[in-house]
Design a protein that fits this description.
The chain contains twelve helices and 13 strands. It has helices at residues 60-74, 82-91, 99-120, 124-128, 147-159, 173-187, 203-215, 230-239, 258-262, 278-291, 304-316, 362-367; strands spanning 3-16, 31-42, 47-52, 134-140, 164-167, 192-196, 220-222, 244-245, 268-271, 295-298, 323-326, 347-349, 369-373. Strands 4, 5, 6, 7, 8, 11 and 12 form a seven-stranded mixed beta sheet that branches. Strands 3-2-1-13 form a four-stranded antiparallel beta sheet. The radius of gyration is 20 Å and the shape is globular.
Length: 374
């Protein structure tokens, strides 16, 4: 079997509601984003698919990178030689680095795994080596308007059977502490809470907030400092008892984690298929984390099909405790006939169809198509 073509179909994701997650990632009005459907065709009439883009990151430039830089490297190759192709993409991209390259490689790699599953009739988690068939989900908030709004949202998810809730705060330390206290008061002591401060504090602020949520029995403290502040994370980890989670950024491959492990700067490793080199890159990192008895907690993938890929990865490893569900749904779920849902026990379940096993909404994509890049 050989790859005969790689294309990206662009379409409009319309009426995305205004949302905010960090100081930098925010919108104040409803908007439209451009998404991309990556398709890899073969000479045996088997194809693999992936989405590229998100509600905040339009797919245009990343899609161009797929067809201009990666397609020539893939055409004529064996699509089942994923390891060789992944290494070639990671090392022969003309000096390009950063988010555009990794998002493009991530999408191609997911499509190659999907193709492999479709060609064998097996779901991706089976190809990787299945570990389980369900995992608990946690609700991951947007930035909300008041402490009471967070408290009400967290309590609603607890009452719906979810087992955990993560706060994305407005990144004002004293207000963030107030929000955390309001949520803990609302949900009681028997519900897990996490705080993701999205790289927003300096060291004194991070220490102050960390001590407060430690006293509130939060489960983990995520990304309080700048993503490259290795020195600050080492200091913070030495004085706090609450587990620290870093490494969601930078957009990079598995080797970027080595300094964090060797300097004991984080308790968890973090990543997702969109920005860490696809399923191949994430699987390598999950196994690296396992060697150091660390969890690899998988981050939201930016779009619905990436989240399906993340779900397969989660089902194939033992060292990821939760599946992240970023809120609100209308800003995150798009392009599938049926998206991932959380059941009444707060669990998400494995998909057992071939490849990714999700039904892409090709009719929606065709109706909103803007271009096909070849």
């Amino acid at each position: 079997m050989r790859i005969t073509d790689v294309t990206v179909t662009l379409w409009r994701w319309e009426d995305i509601p205004p949302t905010r997650y960090t100081r930098a990632v925010a919108s104040s009005v409803s908007r439209t984003a451009k998404m991309g459907l990556v398709r890899i065709d073969t000479d045996e009439d088997v194809a693999g698919f992936a989405f590229i883009g998100s509600s905040y990151a339009p797919a245009d430039r990343d899609a161009s990178f797929v067809v201009e830089r990666l397609k020539p490297m893939l055409t004529g190759e064996d699509p089942l030689a994923r390891e060789r192709l992944w290494n070639a993409m990671m090392t022969r991209t003309g000096g390009h680095t950063g988010g555009q390259m990794f998002r493009a490689i991530g999408a191609v790699d997911v499509a190659l795994w999907d193709l492999a599953g479709r060609s064998t009739g097996l779901p991706i988690h089976r190809l990787m080596g299945s570990c389980r068939d369900r995992v608990p989900a946690y609700a991951s908030s947007a930035v909300l308007e008041s402490p009471q709004a967070y408290a009400e949202e967290a309590l609603a998810h607890k009452e719906s059977g979810w087992s955990a809730y993560k706060i994305h705060p407005p990144a004002i330390p004293e207000l963030d502490i107030e929000i955390c206290r309001a949520v803990r008061d609302a949900v009681g002591e028997d519900f897990r809470l996490m705080l993701d401060s999205t790289w927003s504090y300096d060291y004194p602020q991070a220490l102050r907030v960390g001590r407060a949520i430690q006293d509130l029995d939060f489960y983990w403290y995520e990304d309080p400092l700048a993503d490259d502040d290795l020195y600050g994370y080492v200091k913070l980890k030495q004085v706090l008892q609450i587990p620290i989670m870093a490494t969601e950024l930078p957009t990079a491959g598995p080797t970027s984690y080595a300094p964090w492990i060797m300097n004991r700067a984080t308790d968890y490793l973090r990543g997702d298929v969109a920005i860490k080199g696809g399923l191949t890159g994430c699987l390598k990192t999950a196994h690296l984390a396992e060697a150091f008895r660390m969890n690899y907690e998988i981050h939201h993938g930016g779009n619905s099909l990436n989240n399906v890929a993340n779900l397969h990865l989660t089902m194939a490893i033992s060292n990821c405790e939760y599946f992240e569900v970023l809120l609100p749904p209308r800003a995150q779920k798009h392009g599938l006939v049926r998206d991932i849902e959380v059941d009444g026990d707060g669990m998400v379940h494995v998909l057992d169809g071939p490849g990714l096993g999700a039904e892409i909404d090709f009719e929606l994509i065709a109706a909103r198509q803007t271009a096909v890049l070849r």
